[in-house]
Specification:
- By secondary structure, this protein is an alpha+beta fold.
- It has 2 domains: 72-426, Neuraminidase (6 Propeller), CATH 2.120.10; 443-534, Cytochrome c-like domain (Cytochrome Bc1 Complex, Chain D, domain 2, Orthogonal Bundle).
- It has helices spanning 2-28, 31-43, 443-447, 484-487, 496-504, 506-509, 522-532; strands at 56-59, 63-65, 72-80, 89-94, 99-104, 108-113, 123-130, 140-148, 151-161, 167-175, 186-188, 194-195, 199-200, 211-217, 222-227, 255-260, 266-271, 275-281, 287-292, 298-303, 344-346, 352-357, 369-373, 378-385, 388-395, 400-406, 409-414, 418-424.
- The longest helix has 27 residues, at 2-28.
- The radius of gyration is 26 Å and the shape is globular.
- GO terms for molecular function: electron transfer activity; heme binding; metal ion binding.
- Residues 403-536 form the Cytochrome c domain.
- InterPro entries: 6-blade_b-propeller_TolB-like (IPR011042), Cyt_c-like_dom (IPR009056), Cyt_c-like_dom_sf (IPR036909), Glc/Sorbosone_DH (IPR012938), Quinoprot_gluc/sorb_DH_b-prop (IPR011041).
- This is Glucose / Sorbosone dehydrogenase.
């Protein structure tokens, strides 16, 4: 009996010591803990997607979109997932003739007929992309189509974790879209043709700061790709070593790279970039990139070999929450601190994104740059001269993630799940108007004169409208101007019915509220209710 007691006691002691050591390792996150976690993650089988989700399309009528030189007909196609939720569009790419292919942020693919889009039949689902191992691809940056020996080839850029989950790389893969798949088909991208040098996730990262824009340069059969700093810049997140990755030749972060399409070998074209969202190569080989700055200072850059654009040592913006930036110029007192300055910068930041050269589109805009914006919800048309430039803002009303020219039409993809087709008016003389650019403003844009539509930060005169539906009435913590009537309803939640009642008659809903009676039409209220849902 004593022998069994001794054995039981020994087992109890060993188990206690193992538990204590394991608890200490987890608490301290030492090398033993890291090794265990890496092993478990590596051995855990990847879960492949079973089928692509159903997508639903909703059409709206054409309207006239006005600009200074060129009016457009506008058609919106709204794409939602099988649950009715918004499906953000990350890329739109011109295909053959008058067609384009749109890519959702979950890998869903849609073929869009841009020239004859009059009903829901002009957009149809053609499957969904997955990673090479069949798992969900949920970190997609861009897509492009090129011609090789008279046949199309498609490429996508996306983020790829290693098997342990401790490091990440930006990769580019080829995908076979030679024939349209069924709507529920899953299409595996091929193993990467290019993989950027990995970076550690020890200090976190921001995948929205990945860059990832890709463009083809037929002059040397290469792919040009932008790689963001993933916020590893010493301002948002710490980085290993003494040199910020965008300034280090030993890192691909914060760079524009040229990749040999056949071998996958790459070299650095330029450095010192933060979050280069847009990329375009003209017919003559000019490389243009756009870049998100911090608070203010979004850039359009002319990319040249060997140039350093300064980030994070210089910026035209400031650190969020401050009115300064920790400048570290190469040469004191020089333009842009001695680094290569942008050809254009914007203050405040419009959230500049994708950009294209207008070539063979329309004589009114050919030769210009057309840029998408997120925060400004507009297109920016930039015309350059030798001694200056000008920018025309064309309000669209949606966060525009990507754009391309297909069949003589301008196609936009938005964060709100819209594919917007802009068709130039053929007979401009018939489109003359005395109203001008005000025709582009929608019902929600008028709310922006008082309310903050872009960030969850209230103005002195009105509460912000981000995430309004579902939150309590009179609940914006940074706004103290609510009327007593609204405060008395603070236990109630903003539902669609309550919000519509408030918009129709503010005083009946909450007597004494500062909200004026806007005399909104049924169409205005319907438009507002649709758009407010997207302010999240």
């Amino acid at each position: 009996m004593s022998r069994y007691l001794k054995f039981t006691a020994l087992v109890a002691v060993v188990a206690s010591l193992t538990f204590c050591f394991g608890f200490y390792s987890a608490l301290r996150k030492n090398v033993v803990f890291d090794s265990i976690v890496k092993t478990v993650r590596y051995l855990k089988p990847a879960v492949a997607d079973a089928s692509a989700p159903e997508l639903r399309l909703d059409m709206s009528d054409r309207t006239l979109l006005d600009t200074t030189l060129l009016p457009f007909h506008r058609m919106d196609v709204t794409v939602t997932d099988e649950d009715g939720g918004v499906l953000p569009i990350v890329a739109v790419v011109a295909d053959q003739r008058d067609e384009a292919v749109a890519l959702g942020d979950d890998g869903s693919l849609l073929r869009v007929e841009t020239e004859s889009c009059v009903d829901s039949g002009c957009a149809r689902n053609i499957g969904r992309l997955t990673r090479p191992d069949g798992t969900r691809i949920d970190d997609i940056y861009d897509m492009m189509r090129i011609e090789v020996d008279g046949r199309p080839e498609w490429y996508v850029s996306y983020g790829q974790l290693d098997r342990t989950g401790y490091s990440k790389s930006l990769v580019i893969s080829r995908v076979d879209l030679s024939t349209d798949a069924d709507s529920d088909a899953l299409i595996r991208v091929e193993p990467p043709v290019f993989q950027a040098r990995p970076f550690s996730l020890q200090n976190g990262h921001a995948k929205r700061a990945a860059g990832g824009a890709i463009a083809y340069d037929p002059r040397d059969d290469s792919i040009v790709v932008t790689v963001g700093d993933y916020s590893l810049n010493g301002i948002a997140n710490d980085f290993p070593g003494d040199v910020p990755p965008p300034q280090s030749p030993d890192s691909d972060l914060g760079k524009v790279l040229r990749v040999d399409r056949k071998t996958g070998e790459s070299r650095i074209i330029s450095s010192g970039h933060r979050n280069p969202q847009g990329l375009s190569i003209s017919a003559t080989g000019e490389i243009i990139s756009t870049e998100h700055a911090p608070k203010g200072g979004d850039e359009i850059n002319l990319i040249r070999d060997g140039q350093n654009y300064g980030w994070p040592n210089v910026s035209m913006g400031t650190v969020y929450g401050t009115y300064e930036f920790p400048q570290k110029p190469l040469v004191e007192g020089t333009e842009h601190g001695g680094y290569t300055p942008p050809i254009s910068a914007f203050l405040p930041s419009p959230g500049i994104g994708a950009i294209i050269h207008a070539e063979g589109f329309n004589k009114a805009w050919d030769g210009d740059l057309i840029a998408a914006t997120l925060k400004a919800r507009s297109l920016f048309r930039v015309r350059r001269w030798e001694n200056g430039s000008y920018t025309e803002q064309v309000y669209i009303g949606d966060r525009i993630r990507d754009l391309d020219i297909a069949g003589g039409n301008l196609v936009l993809g938005t964060d709100g799940g819209k594919i917007i087709i802009l068709s130039p008016v053929e007979n401009v003389e018939m489109a003359r108007t005395e109203i001008g650019l005000h025709t582009n403003l929608n019902a929600l844009s008028n709310c922006g004169s008082c309310h903050n539509l872009n960030y969850p930060a209230s103005t002195p005169g009105a509460p912000h409208l981000r995430n309004l539906l579902g939150r309590n009435i009179a609940s914006a913590s940074d706004y103290d101007g609510y009327s007593d009537a609204l405060k008395s309803r603070g236990d109630e939640v903003w539902t669609e019915d309550r919000l519509e009642a408030f918009l129709r008659d503010p005083q009946s809903f909450a007597s004494g509220t500062a909200m004026p009676d806007l005399d909104l039409s049924d169409a205005d209220i319907s438009e507002l209710m649709t758009q407010i849902k997207l302010l999240r």
